[in-house]
Amino acid sequence: MKWYITKRLLMLIPVLLGVSILSFSLIHLAPGDPALTIAGERASPQVISAIREKYGLDKPITTQYWVWLKQVLRGDLGRSIVSNEYVAKEILERFPNTIELTLLSMIFAVTIGCIAGIISASRQYSVFDYSFMGLAIFGVSMPVFWLGIMLMMIFGVWLRWLPISGRISMMISFQRITGFYLLDSLITGNFAAFISSLRYLILPSVALSTIPMATIARVTRSSMLEVLRQDFIRTERAKGLSERIVIYKHAVRNAMIPVITVIGLNFGLLLAGAILTETVFSWPGIGRYVVNAVNMRDYSVVQGCVLFFALMFVIVNLITDIVYVYIDPRIHYG
Amino acid sequence: MERTRETKTQELVRRLKYNKSAVFGLVIIVILILCAVFANFIAPNSPTPSPPELFKALKPGFWSEDGLEDMPLGADGLGRCVLSRILYGARVSLTAGFVAVGIAMFLGITFGVVAGYYGGWVDAVIMRVVDIMFAFPALLLAIVIVTVLGQGLEKAMIAIGIVYTPQMARIIRSSVLYIKEMEYIEVQKAIGSSDWRIILRHVLPNSIAPVIVYGTLMLATAILDCAALGFLGLGAQPPIPEWGAMLSKSYSYIVSGAWWAATFPGIAILLSVVGLNLLGDGLRDILDPRLKT
Lengths: 334, 293
Fold this sequence. Notes:
The complex is a heterodimer. By secondary structure, chain A is an all-alpha fold. Chain A has 13 helices and no strands. The longest helix of chain A has 38 residues, at 191-228. The termini of chain A are close together. Chain B is an all-alpha fold. The longest helix of chain B is centred in the middle third of the chain and has 37 residues, at 82-118. Chain B is elongated and about 75 Å long. The model of chain B has no long low-confidence stretch (mean pLDDT 87). Classes of the chains: A mainly alpha, B mainly alpha. The interface between A and B is large, with 49 and 45 residues.
């Protein structure tokens, strides 16, 4: 087990190196002078020469890469040409918002997806099965940005139940500690802020949860069906165990293994989906940040976000792989 | 005897007929293709009228008493017919999807075959690059490529094509690895056929099933991602009637009650993706039962 984790960690090195090279080349592949690309078109000649100095832009490209990599490892991702703030600082400010959004979406997706999948499998070819799987095919095909707009229209504009954009009501004073709104409001005992930030969170996270929810439902169903066909289930039924115990105690546990992989893979998709959902709901997360940066040609920000997203994606995949081996003793890891 | 003379295509069609959801998907896709091809005959109005008919802006369609008679699905913020733009949009979105998947197939098959057939360091290098590309969520990678190439529909198609290449390469590689060990390939090598001949005449035709299955499913996500880029303002630029771009221009109007301009283009995206997914799932069940989920 330890050996497997070490090996898996070692395999990360070439991938992370590749990721860094790709992010590095972003600025150099962009048309025009890299110094101008980093500093922005309206930068003064002094700023541009300072940048040229800092990144060694008159040196060979390999030297430039090492200079840049050293800065990045020290946590220096450069400055935004729009706000003139440090990119790393801006990313860390927005990061908790994206995490809150993706985590709540994942909670929705896993709970509802698994329940729908289990019901569908235990009553195969029933009305439930057909309607859940019919909904699931729409779910996996859903343009999340459009679903976001529809939810906004129905629950925000027509019914006026929930707010349509932003992170928290402007009327509420709020003290930031960790940057996670739900957590911070609980710590400070600010109940009004908790309710408000939760209300702002619901629509975007429901929109974002659709695709993983549908995928999880489909995988749970097929995995359950596979397990239910196995001999030990037949034995259990034969010895008179109730269907409830057979399904919930024995079948579900065995069926969850492939589901966990899918959950891990879908975390990455959620991050990509967050780019769209955050744009629709003006959610102050990294997704909207990167889209704005692309539109403003703010390359340092794009580069920083790309690195950050890739890092998160790689870490989530790593955790999935490790959890997978941990829960299924049948998997041979060498 | 009849059955044995049946070609593979005939067999495929026969088995597809029994898969109701795949037929349903196929019907949706055929309708969409017909809309795209005959958009200029079916569409009641021009998708980009000039001069713009601003006096029609955000007027509702058939459901309203004072709706526009010549625009059944209402007008968008610039007074353009939503229905006509959706019909022309089918042309844009389907073309974009096909081009993107075409690029991914061409690159993916090339790299996949080379990696699988030759193995060794070529394989190692190609697969490491594939691993690196898999470290990015697809949409993010597409955004990065668009940042470098610049915005626009053509660039979005290229970006999506590149992003899907690693997936195709992996599928082809594993299929080639399997076929390479078959006896008939050994025979070809023994009688001195060139590598190219073996690849083109024997390896590729036998890995066609996963290409068709994943090509169809990929087309679904390509259309979705292309619309997403359009929505973010990084894909098709106005006044091109692209479904995603139409949404991004009209969703601010929902607050003022004009829901139609932001609703119908999304339904078009959803239906085409559902159709392709149903067809793709059906084809997979038939062509590659091992992959059934």
